């Protein structure tokens, strides 16, 4: 009996050490694996019918949607992107139903409610008319009596924004509807950008139609598109830092440029620009 006790006493400390080690390893594995297993994908929302940048009918949801997902992926952050009408997506983001929304240009109202990422894209806002239109310059003095078309969710820019209370606007859902209204003489001037107009022309050709718009020489504004995170989001600064870091990685590696040049919907824009 004494011999058995001795064996038990000698064996017991060894068992305690082994058990402690097993618990230590288990806790370490939980800590290491928790971010991969426990983190929910970030919920992002963007708008429809904004080619080649965003849209559920575009490859990868559009080139900007692909860019946002790739930037977060550089820091192993999974994302889930929903497509909603622009106004609804904006309002749902303010309600924290989404962690971030994109792509938006900066305005005073938005800066009061959101944190803005580093720039995603330089947007050249321009004024477009039909080839035979009487409008020639695009200056405020010339276009004071014109009817402008700007889809819902698209932001005003330049002198048009400053004089918006004095100007006349039509706000359909899509840029295609703006062009249809122009053909029917319901609007005079389309507010858009070269990428959007180039895609519009290509889309029309695919439907055996023809789109020819003339860009007025006076530039409206050059603005940048951004990801926005609600300022009152509990992790707003952290989410913004991770995104901006991923964006910098894409730039430094050359993947930022490659993402745009390889995206089929953006290739449409590049091919027209090179003509």
TrEMBL record:
Keyword Transport: no
Pfam families per UniProt: SBP_bac_3 (PF00497)
Keyword field contains Signal: yes
UniProt keyword annotations, A-Z: Signal
Superkingdom of origin: Bacteria
Residues in Solute-binding protein family 3/N-terminal domain copies: 42-260
InterPro entries: Solute-binding_3/MltF_N
Family: Belongs to the bacterial solute-binding protein 3 family.
Protein's UniProt name: Solute-binding protein family 3/N-terminal domain-containing protein
Record organism: Halopseudomonas laoshanensis
């Amino acid at each position: 009996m004494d011999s058995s006790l001795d064996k038990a006493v000698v064996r017991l400390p060894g068992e305690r050490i082994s058990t402690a080690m097993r618990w230590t390893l288990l806790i370490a594995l939980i800590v290491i694996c928790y971010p991969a297993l426990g983190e929910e994908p970030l919920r992002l929302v963007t708008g429809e019918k904004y080619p080649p940048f965003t849209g559920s009918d575009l490859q990868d949801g559009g080139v900007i949607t692909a860019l946002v997902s790739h930037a977060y992926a550089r820091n192993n952050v999974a994302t889930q992107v929903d497509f909603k009408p622009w106004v609804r997506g904006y309002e749902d983001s303010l309600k924290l139903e989404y962690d971030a929304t994109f792509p938006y240009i900066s305005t005073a109202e938005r800066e009061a409610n959101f944190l803005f990422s580093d720039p995603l894209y330089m947007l050249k806002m321009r004024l477009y008319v039909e080839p035979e239109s009487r409008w020639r310059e695009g200056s405020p003095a010339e276009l004071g009596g014109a009817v402008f078309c700007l889809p819902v969710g698209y932001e005003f820019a330049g002198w048009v924004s400053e004089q918006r209370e004095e100007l006349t606007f039509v706000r359909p859902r899509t840029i295609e509807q703006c062009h249809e209204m122009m053909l029917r003489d319901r609007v005079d001037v389309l507010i858009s950008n070269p990428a959007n107009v180039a895609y519009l022309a290509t889309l029309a050709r695919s439907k055996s139609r023809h789109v020819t718009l003339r860009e007025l020489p006076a530039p409206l504004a050059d603005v940048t598109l951004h990801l926005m995170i609600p300022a009152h989001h509990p992790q707003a600064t952290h989410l913004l830092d991770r995104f901006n870091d991923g964006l910098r990685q894409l730039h430094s590696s050359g993947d930022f440029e490659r993402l745009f040049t390889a995206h089929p919907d953006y290739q449409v824009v590049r091919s027209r620009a090179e003509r």
